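Team,

Forwarding the record for the chain on the shared tracking sheet. I've put the sequence and predicted structure together so nobody has to dig through attachments.
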Amino acid sequence: MYWSIGRSFFRYDPAVADSLGKLKARTDSLRADSLKSDTGKAFPDSVQKRLKARSDSLAKLPAYEGQRVDVTIRAARDVPHGTVLLRGARIVTMKGDEVIENGDVVVTDNRIVSVGPRGPAPAGAQVIDVSGKTIIPGLIDVHAHPWPIGAWGIHESQVWQYLANLAYGITTTRDPQTATTDVLTYADQVETGALLGPRIYHTGPGVFWDENFQSLDEARNTLRRYSEFYGVHTIKEYMTGNRKQRQWVIMAARELNLMPTTEGGLDFKMNLTEALDGYPGHEHAYPIMPLYKDAVQLIAQSGINYTPTLLVSYGGPFSENYFYERFDIHDNAKIRRFIPHEEIDQRAQRRAWFRDDQYVFPRIASSAAAILRAGGFVGLGCHGQLDGLGCHWEMWAMAAGGMTPMEVLRVATWDGAHAIGFEQDLGSLEPGKLADLIVLDANPLEDIHNTNTVRYVMKNGRLYEGDTLNEVWPRQRTLPRMWWWGTEPITKAAGNPN
């Protein structure tokens, strides 16, 4: 028998297993016989103890396991080379509330070298004038589901979800429940430059309630597939049984160096016990609104990262409907470039309509703001409802609950990096960090809706035009033709009856 899991391939030989099974059965029989004398009477206790110890050592020999081969494929990461200076912009560094007016950002290869007031250009650097614009860190969507639309197991060579996210400034995503393991290899392709897209972090498939753990050892055994075979660093504990079972999951996760996030599931009691038990992440809104001071303080002081995913709110219409009612994505040129027409039609042509007073997302966002101001962490989670632009809607929905523009930007950048354990590399504009940033035409600190004025996106040191994803530095490279271009319905020209 042959099978694989993650990076490992197994071969199980039934003939060998059968022979070892017979040997074990014979050993067990001898073990029983050895505890009796020839007369049928039991040996003295001292003799029995010696014989039992010897037979137990035989019984503890490991059972037959299939042959295992770990497959390793090495490929170079995509790292650009050269130095570029982005000169003269307003820089929102996300180091606290720091804002540098008329500043410079210097990038060498894929790392930030310096951030500060405008100064002389480093020798050999290409200078790109971005005077009057605003630079912020790349956005981090910690609850993304950018699932390719093709059949599972067949990898696409052009993934529109990745392109749409990157074009709108999302330079990092974390998918907390991928349904399949396809994303493991998609993420590798992005790292090597074979696919263009944001950084793809993920949990792999969720750890669901049907695991029905009956012990800590069972939880350890299941979580090994993530730490040992999938090679992920975080998992999704998806409403895994009762509190004891969820405690086994987090205990096993800690032993295996996995960082678990959770599924809200409209269960506030479960949500609070997960915070008390040390889970580092919570996905989807708490189902009670408003949250009072006791809950706010508990959530903030626990250190859990709360990602309310306002586009898919509990307790009322999804807030994505609010934005679809107010924004025509169907005739938006940028949307049409990065999302296939049939996908746009499914989202934009026919939707339910709701009165404004039926929407609950401002109240959920208000509680998120309270948690943030109490010292807690809040994440940006766009849920894959509309890849790219949807993350800006999510930020604007956060602002509807009273967050200031600076607080919203913190949620979308630094808190997101903290949520996935990468604050040492992402989330702010500081020397030594990875060069992920957005150049905006308008200032989001004056109006949070200005987040959607993307002029350039830099991801891992490569600079792209926001409207086209044509690379402008260090290469001048046009985005290749996408498979969905030219597949839109034919429209009748004026005066043409055909």
